[in-house]
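Tokens for chain A. Residues wanted.
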């Protein structure tokens, strides 16, 4: 009887201290980045805390619908009443912080490309906010790609779609490349593209324009000539088949057979783990969100796919890891 009572008390104690976590994703459940960072969050929190997600789907929905979907996310918050909110990527932070900043709830963000300082100063209330920033590993990526290219092919074209994250990332990149061009001996051009037809032209013309390699940034918001969203798998598959120059990437989901050959890439899982660890500290009472400094996720990995490297007759640096 005593043993049974002890077990019941233990279970009750676990239930009492388990927290409810709402993860508001900027994008959609099928998006590789979201899958990856959710896996990281679950690795840390699952089993101890209840996790519910809401997808804002902003890579597929036109920008004029983003505020409406943010209202639905807020409704989810009010009905679920979580103990902590995790905001995934820039759109979730930009749209949801104005709705949550004075609700007295801890907020942890991840995957943020823009400096959130001004936003956090503008929306400073009873909620406590911290999180993890995301910055592509520019210098290392470019330097290692450059080491694989012929002497007469040291020009690199970087392509991004016109989504919110892309605009923030490319602004950061352009500032960095002004400093890096002289140091690493490469000419780098960064281009934002809205339409798939323009993307196709930039890929098809790259070789004749003296481009040594194309780095694929984000490609998830491209539209066709009728204004209809082009599936990201279609974009990367076409790009791989039609490119006449080697392809590299900044994010893990762009690397693989039939995709880009490799890169020093960011993994969503590492962002999720970092955010999950912060959330765990808060939920366990070990720290307040306001006392946890905002960090920059720098855990990139140098990876490549052998079939694509062979296709371009390239030898990756020795420390790069094959993913096949």
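Reply:
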């Amino acid at each position: 009887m005593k043993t049974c009572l002890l077990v019941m008390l233990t279970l009750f104690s676990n239930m009492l201290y388990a927290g409810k976590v709402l993860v508001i994703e900027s994008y959609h459940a099928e998006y590789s980045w979201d899958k990856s960072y959710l896996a990281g969050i679950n690795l840390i929190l699952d089993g101890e805390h209840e996790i519910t997600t809401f997808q804002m789907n902003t890579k597929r929905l036109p920008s004029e619908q983003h505020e409406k979907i943010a209202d639905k996310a807020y409704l989810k918050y009010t009905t679920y009443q979580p103990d902590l909110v995790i905001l995934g990527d820039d759109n979730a932070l930009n749209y949801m912080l104005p709705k949550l900043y004075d609700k007295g709830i801890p907020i942890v963000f991840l995957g943020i490309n823009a400096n959130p300082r001004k936003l956090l100063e503008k929306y400073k209330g009873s909620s406590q906010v911290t999180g993890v920033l995301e910055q592509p590993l520019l210098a290392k990526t470019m330097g290692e790609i450059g080491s694989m290219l012929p002497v007469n092919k040291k020009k690199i074209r970087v392509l991004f779609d016109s989504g919110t994250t892309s605009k923030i990332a490319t602004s950061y990149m352009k500032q960095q490349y002004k400093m890096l061009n002289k140091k690493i001996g490469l000419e780098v051009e960064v281009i934002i593209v809205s339409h798939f037809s323009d993307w196709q032209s930039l890929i098809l013309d790259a070789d004749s324009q003296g481009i040594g390699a194309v780095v694929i940034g984000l490609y998830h918001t491209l539209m066709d000539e009728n204004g209809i969203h082009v599936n990201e798998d279609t974009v990367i598959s076409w790009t791989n088949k039609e490119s006449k120059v080697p392809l590299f990437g900044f994010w893990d989901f762009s690397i693989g057979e039939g995709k880009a050959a490799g890169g020093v890439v960011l993994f969503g899982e590492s962002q999720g783990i970092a955010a999950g660890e912060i959330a765990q500290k808060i939920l366990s009472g070990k720290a307040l969100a306001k006392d946890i400094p905002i960090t920059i996720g720098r855990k990139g990995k140098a990876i490549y796919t052998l079939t694509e490297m062979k296709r371009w007759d390239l030898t990756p640096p020795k420390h790069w890891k094959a993913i096949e």
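The radius of gyration is 22 Å. The first helix runs from residue 2 to 17.
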